[in-house]
Amino acid sequence: MTIFVDRSTFSCIDLQKFSAEPGRATIDDVARAAGVSRAAVSKVLRDAYGVSDAMRERVNRAIAELDYRPRVAARAMRGSALTVGVVIPHFGSYFISDVLEGVAAHLRETPYQMILAPADDEYRAGYRAVEALYDRQVDGIVVIAPLERPDWLEAVARRIPLVQLGRHDQSQRYDTIVGDDAAGSRLVMAHLLERGHQRITHLTHLDRGVPRSTLTPQATRSSVYQQTMRQAGLSRHIRVIAARFEEEPARRAMGAALDRAEPPTAVFAGNDDAALGVLRALAERGLTTEDIAVTGYDDARLADHPGINLTSVNQNGHEMGRRSAALLVERIGGRRDAVHETHEPRLIVRGSSTRADQRR
Amino acid sequence: MTIFVDRSTFSCIDLQKFSAEPGRATIDDVARAAGVSRAAVSKVLRDAYGVSDAMRERVNRAIAELDYRPRVAARAMRGSALTVGVVIPHFGSYFISDVLEGVAAHLRETPYQMILAPADDEYRAGYRAVEALYDRQVDGIVVIAPLERPDWLEAVARRIPLVQLGRHDQSQRYDTIVGDDAAGSRLVMAHLLERGHQRITHLTHLDRGVPRSTLTPQATRSSVYQQTMRQAGLSRHIRVIAARFEEEPARRAMGAALDRAEPPTAVFAGNDDAALGVLRALAERGLTTEDIAVTGYDDARLADHPGINLTSVNQNGHEMGRRSAALLVERIGGRRDAVHETHEPRLIVRGSSTRADQRR
DNA sequence: AGCGCGATCTGAAACGATTCAGGAACTCCT
DNA sequence: AGGAGTTCCTGAATCGTTTCAGATCGCGCT
Fold it and tell me: How many CB atoms lie within 10 A of CB B267?
């Protein structure tokens, strides 16, 4: 099986030309300046066994004098670069920011440095990002809400410690952290049904060019929606709209739905970005959440802003990020068996779903 | 002068122990499998001169068979890692997301891969982030709204191509991209004065533990505010509140100001995150922008959301990001003289500053 | 004196790529 | 036929670090 897909970064321009950094001090320079061997300097750097105080002193002085810093690339040639990589699907999502802060918080207490590789939203970009980190010999990778195929991720995980955050497929090769999307979605639906809504429309994420998976959070939310509707005897009102989970596409898709006959009385948007688009579509038509109830998912920071006031599901991204970093470090440390954690979400009820008329 | 400050990452645990990845194919494996020399494989990889079709074919087959990928670390030992680093002050700011998207957009058309290093908001974290990238031998660095001392950045720039985005100090050693904060602030103030406001309060950023600089965007915005107030004969109404540029600290600081005697009739917040906090503080007191006008800065994506409707200054972060990546690539390519670009902002007037009573 | 033993230090061999200076084979021209 | 020029390929040096297998030294003990 071919694991890696993108080789576009292999070929490149004349590498030497850009070497630059002519004057950077090396370990040899330090050794010469301190009048000791290269190996000695290395030991001082790493606080290794068998260094006299006198030598440590001399070496440290030379290091300071030359502004020497070891190069991670050379270090990585043997041993480790002490780096972990995080792949993010796009910038600017509040949920992801929370997760990243959690990851950073945990890594601060370890010797690992975090670097991020953006996957953009382009097709294949996620593969490229993972490969870029792999090529840079990071010690482990956290992938957030990846779109890549599970078997591919599994193949990668065979070679390098991997933690996946946000998707529901479980592998024996890597750890997973997920919010309980089914439970969260049931909370939302129960809330809306309780308030008497029947024509509830669901807004789900449309993966551009990526094979539909049943394992993404959005797929789970969507199927719980449909199942709940059927159980409530509302099969005929089931309506799922697909648009990318961003404000603008959601606005357009929802706008079209509102202009059709029999508009919904409530909208369960698959995440908060999409919900913001829904709110905008309402506003464009002179409607508010007093006319149509709206709920989101993720409890982004602005959900509780007075001008928004969006009912949403809190996933505690910070904690999920923390845990995924912790699991990754464990795995780098040698753990082999897979851990799968599910974090319980809570529904945060706000005005966007409680002002609408309850009887339709 | 000692350039580098943080050596905490030098010492580390037994590196070898974590080497992992036992079975990864090397260029030698490929050479053996294809029955050619190591140098030949390298040439195929880099599309270099002097490779027969037959050999290219054989080598490519071997590469595919072994799932071989060159290691960037080894590559970086000679030549370049084809990587540029971006230092971001924190996650989750819309303006920064825009900038990053711009950077990514430009780099897509180059052989460079982008990696991000977060500086958090902890003191010294920015230094660590820059050093982490430097140690990883990136080919160049973009620092966004850095808090580091200019002379330190200059010392770094002496060794590695650097572009600074957002701060106003200019160096002969590195390029800078800034929005014209003075012009933008004048637009805001002219707008508020024109609408008859006199008691205008300014909300500026409080750097925690970092020496005040006159060169940050916030310092410029603040001083233009004061200057404009004086020119308008409103010296007695000058009031500057300092809080971190995030929603929560801004909310608290503004709340306190509102509860004092003679509250402002308008607030010029130094950025949108802070402005959101101001809006929240208003809402907590049962006030709206019909009572007190509010303006922000950066034109974050939600500024034009119907529930927010915030007057703000658009800086076109995407374009600024694009340009900074372009400048960095030029500089990596050999340019020596410094380029300093100023981007013109535009005022976007929305409801938050036009609904308040104009005569006070 | 001879032995064993820590403690310190060093030389040299990795690590995985790139690149340079040729060598071998082929073509072309006179 | 012989030299010149191309094309294709290889061996070996190189990059900056870690680490392993000794070398050296001083010291206490028998």
Answer: 33
The residue ranges of DSSP E strands in A61-161, in sequence order, are 83-88, 113-118, 140-144
CA contacts within 13 A on the Cβ side of B208? 13
Pick from B204, B214, B209: nearest CA to B296: B204
Output the tens digit of pLDDT for each of chain A's 360 residues: 456 666 666 654 454 444 445 678 999 999 999 999 999 999 999 888 888 999 999 999 999 999 999 999 999 988 788 999 999 988 877 789 889 999 999 999 898 999 999 987 666 788 889 999 999 999 999 999 888 888 899 999 999 999 999 999 899 999 999 999 999 999 999 999 999 999 999 999 987 655 567 788 999 999 999 999 999 999 999 999 999 888 899 999 999 999 998 999 999 999 999 999 999 999 999 999 999 999 999 998 889 899 899 999 999 999 999 999 999 999 998 899 999 999 999 999 999 999 876 444
Alpha-helix residue ranges (DSSP H) falling in B197-316: 217-231, 247-259, 272-284
Amino acid type, A255: G
Helix, strand or coil, per DSSP, at residue B141:
strand
Angle separating helix axes B53-66 and B38-46, nearest 10 degrees: 90
**Which tokens hold the place of B201?**
């309060």
State the CB neighbour count (10 A cutoff) for residue A104. 23
Q: What does pTM read for this prediction?
A: 0.89
Candidates A18, A49, A304: best to mutate against B (most CBs of B within 10 A) is A18
Q: Does an H or E element contain A148, and which? A: none
User: Residue A155 in contact with residue A3, Cβ under 8 Å?
Assistant: yes
Nearest C-alpha of chain A: how many angstroms from B138?
A: 10
Helix (H, G, I), strand (E, B) or coil at B282: helix
Q: Show which of residues 191-250 on chain A sit within 8 Å of chain B, judged by CB atoms.
A: 247
What is the residue whose two structure tokens read 């709204």?
A: B145
Beta strand pairing call for B140-144 and B83-88: parallel
Residue (of A204, A227, A358) closest to A293 by Cα position: A358
Of all helices (H) and strands (E), which one includes residue B99? helix B94-107
Report the relative pairing of strands B200-205 and B239-243 from DSSP bridges: parallel
How many Å apart are CA B139 and CA B169, to the nearest integer? 23
Q: Residues of A with CB below 8 A from B161's CB?
A: 20
Interchain pair B15, A80: CB under 8 A: yes
B18-21 own/partner pairs: CB under 8 Å, 24+ apart: B18/A79, B18/A80, B18/A139, B18/A332, B18/A333, B19/A78, B19/A79, B19/A80, B20/A80, B20/A139, B20/A160, B20/A161, B20/A332, B21/A137, B21/A159, B21/A160
Task: Categorise residue A166: left if φ over 0, alpha if ψ from -120 to 50, beta otherwise.
Answer: left
